[in-house]
Amino acid sequence: MTTRRTFLKVLSGGLGLAAVGLPSRQSLADVAKASETEFFVFIIAAGGWDVTLWADPRNEAKGIVHPASTTNTDTSQLRRWVDAPLVDGEKSFQLVRPAGSNLVFGPGIGDLADMPDRLTVINGLAMNTVAHPDGQLFSTTGRHPQGGRVAASSIDTMLSNELGRDQLLPTVSVRFPSAYVGADLDRRVVPLAIDDVGSIARTVTRAQQYDANPERDLVTAMLSEEARDLAKRSTYPDVLDGLALQYEGVRHMLDSHLQDVFTTGGLQKAHPELNYTRRFTRGAAVNAAFAVESIKRNLVRCVSFAVGGFDTHGNNYRTQAQLQQETFELVALLVKSLDRTPHPLVQGHKLSEHTHILVVSDFCRTPQVNLALGRDHYPNNSALVVSPRFRSNFVFGKTDLEQLLPAPVKKFADGERAIAPPDLLATFVSAFGVDPRKYMRDGEVVKELLRL
Amino acid sequence: MVPPSAPLPLVANGVAAEDTARKENLRMVPPEVYMRTYLQLFGGLLPVDAQKRAKAGDGGSVFDSWDDYVSALGFPDYRFDIPRQTQTNALMVAAFERLGIALCDRALEHDLKGKAPLPVQDRLIFAFDLPKGTVDAKAFGPRFDVLHRTFLGYPAALAPPQRTARFFQLYRDLVSEHAKTSPKSRFTPDEAGWAGVCYGLVRHPEFHLY
Amino acid sequence: MLRLPRALPRLSLLSILVALVPAVFALDAASAPPTVSRTLDDYRHFRTVAIDLTGRAPTREEIAATERADWNLDHWIDGHVTGPGYVERLTRIYMDLLRLEPNLTFSDPPAQLFRASIAGPDGKPMYVFYRGGQRRPREATDADFCLSPDETGLVIRPGAEAVGTPKKVPQKLLDQYTMLVKPWWLYKDYKSWTPSQLYGAGWPNPDPEYRPVEGLLSEPDGKPTTAVRVCKEEAQGMDVGHVYASGRKPPGAPAPAVKPGPGKPALPVNGKPGAPAPPVSGKPLAPAKVVAPGSTSQHALPNGAPAMPAPMGSMAAAAAPALAGTPSKFPGGRLKAAPVDSKYAMEHAGEAVECATRMGLDYAVDCGCGVGLERCEPSTGFNFDSPAFYYPNHMPLGPGMPLDEARQPASRWFPYWWSREAVRLLGDLFQEDRDFREILTGHRTFVNGPLSQFYRIVQRGNCCGPEANFGMKTEMEPLFDPKNVPPDLEPTDVGTWKMVADRGPHSAGLLTTPMFLQKYASARARGAVLYNVFMCKSFISDKAELLPSDEPNLTIRPGCATCHATLEPLAAYFARVEPASFVFLPEAEFPARNPTCKKDRNGHLNGPCNALYDVAFADDHGAMLRSAYSSPAHADETPAGAGRDITQTPEFAQCAVQQVTSSFLGRPISPDDDTLVRGLTSDFVKSGYRMRTLVKGIVRSDSYRKANNMSSTTWRGAP
After folding, report:
1. Which of A203, C303, C586, C606 has the maximum number of C-beta atoms within 10 A of its C-beta?
2. Rounded distance, CA C332 to CA C309, Å?
3. Are C464 and C473 spatial neighbours (Cβ–Cβ below 8 Å)?
4. Distances in Å between the alpha carbon of B17 and those of A44, C49, C495, C713, C714?
5. pLDDT 10s digits, C590-648
6. What ipTM is given for this predicted complex?
7. Which of A242, A236, A120 shows the shortest CA–CA distance to A189?
8. Under 8 Å between Cβ of A444 and A419
9. How far is C347 from C324, CA to CA, in rounded Å?
């Protein structure tokens, strides 16, 4: 991770954007223009996942690593689990090696093993924390919280602010740690944070027995004027200006008849290709359906949601692999659904060519198994990207063999070190023409992750 | 060379007011405060009772349930470590509209459309009688002041100068529009006008910010 | 309904003008001209103060009152630092920081009843309640459902749907192995010999907040439930049972050192005799344990062999092939072999065990759910998520103001009440303006019916497993002494709250409440939250690289020490409270450094030692209690010591002032606020750490008055 000290040192040395791995401003502007047709899905595996079951597989007892085995894992539902000998008669898993790929996975990868050519895996992310709120915020904003407060905007807010201001729903966030922090952000992109997508429909439903939409629009228009007038009278006008924009946003929302589509039943009907019967991800499947439908209608820029249940300290570790399998199956189905859906603006293109998925988690789990046959928190992590702008069939980053700790992977501006979440987020936003320094204090663009 | 000397006092050329107030941005009224205020306006009811009154079971589809709006209103969910929202967003503003319309419509029915006229002191929001005939600015002003105090907490006379006029224009536009667009409405045009004024205040920036 | 003031104010010029307007306006006095001309600033300031102290915007009457000449803001403030709005305002600050609501289940095996559906003598479905892991004298049913698969046609297990084809169970078998009970959730007078006060029919003055789900109130045929059928062992009401040795030995085990004693006959429950326990020796099967998500505790058997948790859901798939035409090789058609006797059972057969404890479930065939099944909580199905009671999902405005009411699973019943207890504790602190340090040091709390059931009875089931090897078969120094629970609260007295002045000598405010201990399940998590919330400090690592290292001491390990040098000693305060649990380990039985727990030749600790002591800090002289290594002294001081030590630091008062001031100002505290914060802190401490003094100081401050952009002096004029 680039500390503030080293970052300033670098800049003062006059190395400029290039030295910290940032593209030139002109090239960013060009890319940004081309990114106005892009969409984003952000998923957090809330609770901290066991990377040794999928991205950074371990099936041998080396050092402090105690692999998943038939003793601590319920393998009955795992499609990719094939027994492999361990020690003392225990059985671990055979590594999953997708055909035609050098990628190696654990059985938690599920159906994503069938599409290695779409995947970018990042291992050995240095987390420097094992606290949930901290890990989640670090993974999604690139900054640790300061005194309990969120220190920076999350990646969905960053991208919406750049590319999504004119969307009806720039960021929809379903239990994702979205954050809106900073003075220079457009108030339209404050994340719409909801519990479930069905609440969108219920919130925008309007009775017709007393008044009609044109009348309500008159009120809204008047309120916009009021807000703008108050803003002109205020020393700090942005909250009031923002409210004016949000009033206008409501009018557009109501005109779009969102309530007709964005109900749980409606989404399930519209997207039967997703699986709504899985034990752990049935709720997340509805969120994925919402993502596809809202992107298809060009209503959103970012959809962010969480899949919960990964915090398996105890006996519940037995189902961690199954939870991963279901989560990655959901991602695979989402990708396939995007493969089939036409782009709303770019004729002849499919959504998958213009939709970019990032899957993160708070941190990973200990390589050791604890007394409760579970795993605790550990300051390492992995992440997954599915994006045409990222180099696919590719893994970047590594951990040491015996302790699963992040290992130095390249020379950054502040020396040889492991990759960290700010680097991944900076790389991600820069791929769409966004200057990471506009939003992020830390992080370098890792060119190796990007498609040339 | 000029030898050093003590500085002479500056001569005052005038007096200017200096605003030493700390410049802070507006903050959103917390969802708990919004809800408590809302319930107070609804007659000091408990949440489940307000929900029942708002739904009224009359097919009006005016209200769903509090559970449907809780996350849109920005409440935290400590069970899932979801923090409270401290900024408005478009969906929240949509929720404010939904809830505000429910309050104003039901309050108007309660206050002004009962079988027997309700004493003014027992009215929830519309604590005035509607004038007979066309409402002009003179008749509108004091009635608007009642609503302005109710929702925004101060007399309309102290508001920015265009406020009363703007709301009066809204009232007139709504009366005119209502007759055209909602012939089957449960409200008369005049009632729709006052309900609209109520919507405008319960959704006003000064109601949601402080 | 809103009431308007009747008295007319003194007339001003404006009021004369308004008086000419037709008097059809409700306000009368309220909309009548103000007797004092207030500025926009005054109105806005009052609105802000009202929002913060009453929890809502001011009403028209309240605004009108401020327009009277005799109205005084200071007096108004003094009168409003009380009441539900004020209490909720302060509670909100600490709930935002601590988030004391559960996203977890609590399903302690001794307390959890499941409900199976079998075919009765007439072939129609009927319900039978049972506990997972209940010991039974019959090999065919020991630690399983009380009727064997051969008898019911079904394999019935907790956490999984029954598998098989139901066959009629004759009445004779039903009478032999089950009985009817009038349980606490249906009968107010369940303790009497002949309960008659049935919920919905004869129960006097039922608590309106107590609502069992419909499924608990009716039979499969829709008829109202008047008694529940329970496996006979579960129906037993004795307080004390006996270690049972079945005589089934593990392969290669020596003959028992002590001859197994006879099991004593069960006392009658509700007037009906229980079944006697035959003296058959054997080894108990390691019972299934459901651990709350986030839990790190594992109840091992006293002989050290860790319990093998039964995988939920997977057994259905595993069972199906066994039942699909393949005869079981085990008695009664059971799925797996009956449990064999553990070393402990063989050595202690016949010894007394307390039925409310975990040992009662694991070891005794003569321990059940107690009178009226009061040690157990019901479910309407086979899994932990089956609904049992109605209670709210959301109650953000405080007690008594739920937003909804929903069917909730039994496994969340107690966690829900723990959260309500935490909110009440905070509410009491603020309403009574108690010394704020009691948030970490206080002994008092509030309990209602479910909490009294929990503290008196249910929490005892958390203990004891490996603890028994150290001489603790039942909790010896519980964090909440059951003797201090009000005796007159029934489990269904949901809406009746009583104050408990003293939970016990180990009390430490919120730190020793189940909600806190479950939400922050590990010692480190508990220590970290103290640091963040009550000292306003963060753990910020200054070096990214974590090099592989064998150093177990995180306070000196490179890369870790920056944070852990502080965190480990904080965590040590909680070393005596088991992770994800509230079982307290007394010093006498569990010394911080235990000389009896030594590393063996292979460098391991034996089972019970390994469960509670840390092999990373062990040698051939002894081992350290888990989490205690960095500060055995802190471990012995317990959470009460943490509360005392933290509240004595200057940071505690400063942090409390910062948290509250920041919340009232609506922004983080900055160096510009130093003078304000210093003054407020001094007053806060001098007042004896009273929140009212602090809040009054804040709302009277200039910073508060100018804390938003709405001051009229900041208008830049008309656009």
Report:
1. A203
2. 23
3. yes
4. 53, 27, 59, 10, 12
5. 999 999 999 988 888 887 899 999 999 999 899 999 999 999 999 999 999 999 999 99
6. 0.89
7. A242
8. no
9. 40
Burial class (CB in 10 A: 0-12, 13-18, 19+), C422: buried
Put simply, whether B107 touches A (Cβ < 8 Å) is: no
Quick check: C114 and C129 in contact, CB under 8 A?
yes
In this complex, is the C-beta atom of A1 within 8 Å of any C-beta atom belonging to chain C? Answer: yes
Q: Look at residues A60, A130, A122 and name the one whose alpha carbon lies nearest to residue A365.
A: A130
Residues of chain A with Cβ-Cβ distance to C293 below 8 Å are 309, 311-314, 316
Q: Report the length, in residues, of chain A.
A: 452
SS3 A228: helix
Q: CA neighbours within 13 Å on the CB side: how many for C90?
A: 29
Q: In 3D, which of C302, C243, C239 has the Cα closest to residue C269?
A: C239
User: Is A220–B97 a contact, with Cβ atoms under 8 angstroms apart?
Assistant: yes
Check A314 against C709: CB less than 8 A apart: no
Q: Which residue's structure tokens are 């004693």?
A: C261
Measured between alpha carbons, how far is residue C659 from residues C82, C537, C681 in Å?
A: 19, 12, 11
DSSP A295: H
What token pair was written down for B62? 């005016």
Shortest CB distance from A316 goes to which of C291, C536, C542? Answer: C291
Domain extent for B202: 31-208
C426 near C516, Cβ under 8 Å?
Answer: no
Dist CA C537 CA A419 (whole Å): 27
Task: Determine, for residues A318 and C311 on separate chains, whether the beta-carbon distance falls below 8 Å.
Answer: yes
pTM: 0.86
Mutate which of C1, C6, C701 to test chain B, going by most B C-beta atoms within 10 A? C1
In a domain, B13, yes or no: no
C-alpha distances in Å from residue C646, one per residue of C561, C573, C692: 21, 11, 21
Task: Identify the CA nearest to C383 among candidates C116, C102, C111.
Answer: C116
Helices (H), A258-319: 264-270, 282-296
Q: Is residue B84 a part of any domain in this protein?
A: yes
The whole-angstrom separation of Cα C694 and Cα C653 is 11
Answer whether A6 touches C (CB < 8 Å). no
Q: What is the pLDDT of residues C27-44, one digit of tens each?
A: 444 555 557 889 998 999
Chain A residue with minimum CA distance to B177: A215
Please name the residues between 14 and 53 in chain B that touch chain A, using a CB distance below 8 Å.
Answer: 23-27
Cβ of C403 within 8 Å of Cβ of B146? The answer is no
- pLDDT number for residue C719: 41
Q: Is B55 on the interface with A (CB under 8 A)?
A: no
User: HSE on the CB side for C265, CA within 13 Å?
Assistant: 8
pLDDT-derived band at C540 (thresholds 50, 70, 90) equals confident
Q: Quote the number of domains for chain B.
A: 1
- Does residue A225 belong to the interface with chain C, where contact is any CB pair within 8 Å? no
Nearest to B186 among A194, A205, A209 (CB): A209
Euclidean distance between CA atoms B178 and A216, whole angstroms:
10
> Positive or negative CA dihedral for A264, A267, A268, A273?
negative
Q: Is residue B14 part of a domain?
A: no
Domain ranges of chain C: 13-80, 109-275+283-383, 392-592+628-646, 649-705
Classify C99 in phi/psi space as left (phi over 0), alpha (psi -120 to 50) or beta.
left
CA dihedral C597→C601→C603→C604, nearest 10 degrees, is -50
Interface test with C, best of B79, B135, B204 (most C CBs within 10 A): B79
Rounded to the nearest angstrom, the gap between the alpha carbon of residue A198 and the centroid of all alpha carbons in its chain is 21
Chain A contact for B185, CB < 8 A?
Answer: yes
Asked if C298's CB is within 8 angstroms of A314's CB, the reply is yes
Q: Check if the beta carbon of residue C593 is closer than 8 Å to that of residue C624.
A: yes
Placement of tokens 């999953």 in the chain: A96
What does the pLDDT read at residue A154? 98
